[in-house]
Amino acid sequence: MKKTFKVPSEKQPIWKGVSKILKLIYKKPEIINLNDALSKKSIIVANHSAMNGPVIYSLYFPLFHATLGAYPMLEGYKSRFRYLRDVYFVQKRGMKKFPATLIAAFEAFFSIYFYRGIKVLPSYDDARFATTVKNSLACIRADVPVMIFPEDSSTGYHEKLTSFFAGFVGIAERYRKVYGEDVDIYPVYYHKKHNKMVIGKPSTLAEFEGMDRYAVANAFRDKVNDLFEKYVKPSAPAAE
User: Fold this and answer.
1) pLDDT bucket at 174, cuts 50 / 70 / 90
2) How far apart are the C-alpha atoms of 233 and 53, rounded to whole Å?
3) For residues 226 and 217, is the Cβ–Cβ distance under 8 A?
4) Which of 162, 199, 214, 215 is 20 to 30 A distant from 11 in Cα terms?
5) Radius of gyration (Cα) for the chain, nearest Å?
């Protein structure tokens, strides 16, 4: 029986306990927020920063939010193991298969609990994308922003992002069509080495009239990269 989707709640006593422990491991970053206030009815497009970004954003981003993540990581053990080994460690991190297998076999046991704790919604790239859109809109409408990592990480996680997938633009377009208004889209950049998070000013689809969704997606890539160039790179003598 298909489960009814429920918008994530900020009331999560178990995860609050876990997050206190994680905060001992992950130091709070310097947060540069270019906004006077942040809209809860919003989409947040951020760099992934390997495994670090989602955890840091969950612990320290100023707004409680849901996060779109790879759907295999929310399925059974075999699915999580294969995704971690074949996609994350081998393809994206460039590891050899043997060590990737050992690490993936271990992490696949408990990763599901982290994904649930940071309120990850499954992101699909097939016909089920309609479900991703529907659930995302439900969150935004209920004042729970949705964080999305649209960078193309097929060749690894880059300090300066190369391209963005356009799924988040499709979500914004659907929100406009259903509710007759634009949703704010915030660019965000996190740099692990310098432990710095930058939250840029929002834009809406209205600013990109006449552009197709792929051009819009890469315009936001430029906005995220611009945060790196202006607020992180000057103090970063070398890439990670």
Assistant:
1) very high
2) 17
3) no
4) 199
5) 17
